[in-house]
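call fold(seq) -> C-alpha cells
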Amino acid sequence: MSRSIIPASRWSPRRPPRRRPPAVLASAVALATALGLLAGAPGPATAGPATAGPATAGPATAGGPVVTRAGLDPGLVSGRGADVGFVEQEAENAATDGEVIGPDRTAYTLPAEASGRRAVRLTPGRYVEFTLPNAANAITVRYSIPDAPGGGGITAPLDVAVNQRRVRTMTLTSQYAWLYNQYPFSNDPAAGLLHPDWWITECGCVPSATTPYPSIPTPFRPSHFYDEQRLLLGRTYRAGDRIRLTVPAGSDAAWTVIDLLDSELVGPPRVRLAAANVLAFGADPTGRRDSAAALDRAIAFARRADLPVYLPPGTYQVNRHIIVDDVTIEGAGSWYTIIKGREVALPTPAPDGSVHTGVGFYGRDSADGGSRNVHLSGFAVEGDVRERIDTDQVNAIGGAMSDSTIDGLHLRHTKVGVWFDGPMSGVRVTNTVIVDQIADGLNFHTGVTDSLVAHTFVRNSGDDGLAMWSEKVGNARNRFDHNTVQSPVLANGIALYGGTDNTVSNNLVADPVREGSAIQVGSRFGAEAFTGRLLITGNTTARAGTYELNWKIGLGAIWFYALDRDIDATVEVVGDHYLDSTYNAVMLVSDWPVKDLYSIRNVQFRDIRVDGTGTSVVSARSAGSASFRNVDARNVGAVGVNNCGSFHFTPAGSEFALTDLGGNDGGWLAPWQLPNTITCDDRPPVVPPPPPASW
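ret:
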C-alpha cells in the first residue's frame, strides 16, 4: 500500500452554461484522417527490468501452445478473475534454446518475481518461441534486463519474428525497474542502508546499534525486476503461427529474461464523430509538443457544448495533471491513444507535499467538493516514475470522482495506477489494465463508498495490487469483483484496511513476492475499525504466502492481522480456493507487542478448498476464534492447525478457539485439536506440495 495520503491538486472551476453546438467538429475528423491517425499505431512503448539470481538449468520442449491464467490451467480458475482480451503463455512452456530459471519463491530473485515462479533466461543469440493459440495482431512481452552498473537502467534490443521472418525490433529498457534497499527504496545499487536504525534479518541486528558495525553487501535487497512492453504486429496472424523472440548477438544486455507473452486480437480504432476532437484544439498526436493545454481547451469546450472529448489515435505528451469534472473523455482504444508524460521536478514543494508532477487525470480535491460525472475510457496513460516518493501525486488517475466511470484504460509507469482520495461515492473501475507501478495498483483511500472495481487486471505493482484503506474515514459497501492480480512485488494482492460492508469476490490472485500475501484483512495503518459484514467469497489464490522478514515465519494465502485494534466484525470467507500455498492457507495474527490487547474473533470459513500447503492449513497466532464448515484440504505439508494463541501456553489451552461445524474433509481438523489445543510450531519444515489439480 502506498503511504501517500496527500489530496489531489486543488482546482475550483466556474462552470459555464451549457449549450449544444450546431454541428460536429468535422474539421478535426478530417485532420485526423489526413494525418493517417485513424489507422494509428502507437508510439514506441518502453519497457523494463530484472535481477540476476542464480539460474537453474531446465530446457523447455517444443510442442503445441500451452495457455495459462496466472500460471495455472484455466480449468482450475474458471469463472474467477478478470475477463481480458488477451491470452497468456508462460515462456517456460514455450520452445527455447535458452535456460529455464526457477521455480523459486525466495525474495530478491528473478524467478520469484516471475509469473508462475519460472521464466526463461536468454543470452545474446538465444530465443524463445511461442505458438499462437488464437489469431492475434498484438503482443505484450513481460521481460527483464540488467540494470546499469551505477543504476538508472539500460536499453537493449529484442527481435520479434513470425514464422522465422523478422517483424519488428523492440527496444527493451530497465529504466523503470530495479529498486534496492529498504522502504521507500533507492535507485542506487551501491547505496548503504536507508535506515541503519531498523532491525534487519540479514544480520539479525540493528546495524547502527551493533559493534562492530555489520558488513552489508550491496546491492542490498534488489527487487522490481520486470517490466512489460506492448507491440502491434502490423497484421493479423493465425492460430498456429510462431512468435519468436530473439536476443540479437550484439545486445548490450548480458542476459534477457522472458517471463511470458500475452497475445491479442485488437480491434480497429474507435472513432467518435460527435465530439470535441482534441486535434481541433491544438493537440499534437506525434508526441513532440506538449498537449496539456490543448486537452484543457477541449475539456472546457466539451463542458459548454455538452459533448464528449475525443482523443484520436496518437501519442500525446502531457506532463502534468489534467483536471476533470463533469466530462467524458474517450480515446480510440488503449492500444491506439496514448497519453505519455515526463515526471517533472517542481521548483518548490506543492501545498499537497508533492515534489514532482506528471501525467495524470485528477478529480478535484474532496475538500473542494470533488468531481462528479467523470467518464474516462479507451486510452493508455504512460508515466515516467522511477522512484517511490509517497508525498508525490504522480498517479495515473487521482483525486475524488463521484458517480464516475473508468473503463478500458491501460495504466503504466506511474506511482499508483488509480488512487482515489475520498470522501466520494459511486465510482466504477472496469476492464482496465494496470501494470508496472512503483506503488499500489489501485487504492480506495478514505471514505470511498458504494464503488466497484471489476474485470481489472493488475500485474507487477510495487505494493498492494488492489486496496481499500479506511484511514480516518471508513470505506463502505465497495466491491472488488472478478479481478486478476499477479506478482505484486511488495505487500498483498488484495488488501482491506478497515471499513464497513465491503466485498471481495471472484478474484484471482497469484505470486505475491514479499511482506504480504494474496488477501489481507488488516487492522493497521491507522485504519478505522471493521464493522458490519465483510464478505470474502469465490476467490482463488495461487502460490501465495510469503516469508515475513521481521517475524521470520511464513504468511498465509489469506491473513488477518490485528495490529491497531480488534478485528471483530462479521467476517465470512466463503467458497475460496487456496492453491499451492507456500506456507499456510489461512493465518490469523496479532503482533507481539499488542498480542494481549487485540484479538481476531468470529471469522467464519465455509465451502473452502485447500489444495497444497507448505505447512499448515490454519495458523493462529492471536487470541480469538474462528469456525469452519466444509473446508476440504489435501497435500498439507505439516500439522493441519498451528495454534499458538497469544503465546501464554496456559493449562486451559490456547487463547484461540476453533469450532468444527462439520464437513471438514482431509483430516486436517482433528478432534484432538479442538477447541483450543496448543500445537504451536511456527517454523516446521516446508514441504512443497504437488501442482494443484482438478478436485
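DSSP finds three helices and 57 strands in the chain.
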